Amino acid sequence: MSEPVNKPTNRLLGIGIFAAAAIGLFLYAKNKPLKNSLPIIYPPDTPAKGNGRVFQTIHTPEEFDLLLSSPASSHGTLFATFVRLGETPSNSMATNMWEIIRNVETQNTGTVCIELTGGRNDELMRRYIVNKIPSVVALKKTLPYDIYVDEKVQNSNTDINDVDKEKLREWVESVLSKR
Question: Is the pLDDT of residue 111 over 90?
C-alpha cells in the first residue's frame, strides 16, 4: 500500500482557503449584523418633552407580566390602556394616552396598550376588572390604583368616537399627584 503524499502546497492551499473564509465572514458580520435591535419606546424618532415612556402593544399576558417585573414599573406608575385596536374609540384612547404620557414630567411613568382582539388578554381583563372598552387602569408599583372610562364613550359600539383628551389628561395628573 502506498501512503498518502503530504504535499506542502495542499496544506498551504487549505490554510489559505480557511483564512479567506474567516476574513470574509468577519467583514460580512461587521457590515451586516444578523439582527437589528428594535427600540421598545414608541415612537422611536420623536423627541418627547417629558420623562414618560410609551411601550409597545401587549398581545399576551406573559408580555405584560414581564413588563410589570421591570424596575421602572415596580417603582412608578404604569397606565394600562385596554383597547381593541382598529376601532375608532380605542384608537383615540391609545393615541391620547401616548401623547399625554410622553410629555409627563414625573419619573418612572409609562403607558402600554393591551390589545384585546382575539381573546388572548381576557385574563388581564378579569385580573383588573375591566368591563368597558376602551378604558385605562392606573397601576402604582404594579398594584391597581384607579380606572378611567370616558362617560361618553362607554364602549366601542357608541356613536361618539373621540375620547375627551382634557378629561383624560386631568385624570392622569390627579393619579400622578397622589402617592
Answer: no
What's CA 139's distance to the chain center, in Å? 16
| Crossing angle of helices 165-177 and 88-102, rounded to 10° | 50
pLDDT in tens, 21-40: 888 887 877 766 555 544 44
As given in the structure block, the three cell numbers for residue 60 are 399576551
Q: What distance in Å separates the CA atoms of residue 107 and residue 119, rounded to the nearest whole number?
A: 33
pLDDT at 6 exceeding the cut of 80: no
Ramachandran area for residue 84 (φ above 0: left; ψ -120 to 50: alpha; else beta):
beta
Per the listing, cell 502506498 goes with 2
pTM tops 0.70: no
Please tell me the total count of domains within the chain: 1
In a domain, 46, yes or no: no
Look at residue 159 and tell me whether its pLDDT is greater than 90: no
What is the percent of the chain where pLDDT is above 70?
78
Cell 498518502 belongs to: 4
Domain that holds residue 152: 53-177
Q: Give the CATH number for residue 128.
A: 3.40.30.10
**Is residue 132 assigned to a domain?**
yes
Going across the sheet that includes 143-148, the strands are 53-54, 109-115, 77-83, 135-140, 143-148
Assigned domain for 12 exists: no
